[in-house]
Amino acid sequence: MWPFSRRDLVPRDLTDGLEAEGVVVRHGNVSTTLRFENYRAPGRYSGLRKVRLRSALVVTRERLAVYVRGPFLDVSYADPRFDQLDLRTTDDALVVGWDPSLFDERSSGRVDVTCRIPEPERALEWIRARRRAAAPGAPDTPSEP
Q: Containing domain of residue 102, as a range?
């Protein structure tokens, strides 16, 4: 094991804001795979690239966020772009995929983030319920996992 492998990877300057939003799921240091397919961005191109690293996954009452050396994905449930995220699970992971042009019009391709967490189905269920509650005219709020 690496010397600092248990370090929480959520940036300290963002922790207070996330706590104020009501953290529901927080995995501060998880095994993660980033997959870039036909990815194009200014100065970058990748036909297919996979990177294994450690990241932090945070689900609050207001947003879904993945931190890899800073914010990699940070989107509010009320953001209309949230519906264009491809959320799914595998046996041991939560997978979030998207077209990078969703967040930066100069980019294209496909990005998938696979975070290996305990009980990924439960986390996904809560995320989907929270998104439904954030939709206009939806009064219900989901119970915590």
A: 12-134
- pLDDT tens-digit map of 94-133: 999 999 999 999 999 999 999 999 999 999 999 999 888 8
Number of domains in the chain: 1
Q: Does residue 50 lie in a domain region?
A: yes
Structure pTM? Answer: 0.83
Q: Which of 127, 121, 115, 8 is nearest to 63 (CA)?
A: 127
CB 25 within 8 A of CB 120: no
46 lies in some domain: yes
Q: How many helices (H) and strands (E) does the chain have?
A: 2, 7
